[in-house]
What does this fold into?
Amino acid sequence: MESLHISPDSFRYRGMIGTGGIGSGSFFVLNGNETLGREESRSGHFLDRRDYCKLHIISHYVRALLGPAFLTLPIGKVGEDEVGKRLCAEMGEVGLDMRYVEQVSGLPTLFAFCYIYPDGSGGNLSTDDSASAHVDAAAVLRAAGAFLPWQGNGVALAAPEVPIEARAALLKLATEHCFFRVASFTSEEMADAFTLGMLREVDLLAINIDEATAAAGFPATADRAEIIHLAVVRFHAENPAMLVSVTAGKDGVWYSDGTRLDHRPAFLVPAESTAGAGDAHTAGMIVGLTAGLPFADAVQLGTLVAALSVTSPHTIHPGIDRQSLRVFVGEHGLEVSENNRMMLEGVC
It folds into this structure.
């Protein structure tokens, strides 16, 4: 399906440079809901799902929705194994600029083994000494020259699954070159984000409800509205101008521009898998802001991209582009803003 593209003359930004995890995974459904024992053997079966990591997911959707005029440069590392070679080939095929993705000998590509019980709960096991774990500040600094052509006109993405030091280096470079800075942190990293002062170098913080809970310091059983309110207050005490988005699955997204906290419900559609939906939402927001949309409309676009993403069993929906989003809106009778309708129709 051929994509419709916004004129690059209307872009607020010219390209994106990002770092984060590049890897793959598999999904295995266990027979029986009883918790797997320490020395137990149990049967099950693999699901036909392709799993990807955060930098790959976000970069893919940004490229697919903005087209070739918006250059997208991931910074990362994969192993010289079959998984790494396949991922590099897939990323190159969609048009990502792969000059700063290094294939490293002697290290495996980041890989997660996700196990699922029949009731839908589960967990995952991931490699702790993968190539992504070796993305350091030096790897980011090697890409410093790529920031220069987009001085004041670029997007920087600092995504998890690489060490926090590498993301701090990226945000520092982005600040020096006046980029629009997008970041997310896992629940375990949230304390470091405050301690290291990283939030002061972020323009859009994209997190989920679990990560907001970690920032608020509340137990997960606390009232959701209170958790989000306190987390947003903490974020804006650190950086009053920062945009904040907190996704909560089928309960929608809360977002704040520093002056007010709003909520947007999710577009409820039949879902094959919700894995990767948060990253799809982040990508949609980046696309909307690049296209010049107000923050509220960019959040709605993120919600729309996430809704279409969950209709695929894979963590990257291979068919998402602006034309498929437009068809999706029509088929499901979804209400979108006039700005988003015009963007989906290719009107600047």
In short: DSSP finds eleven helices and 14 strands in the chain. Confidence is low (pLDDT under 50) at residues 1-5. Residues 10-21+55-107+130-183+266-341 form a domain with the UDP-N-acetylmuramoyl-L-alanine:D-glutamate ligase fold (CATH 3.40.1190.20).
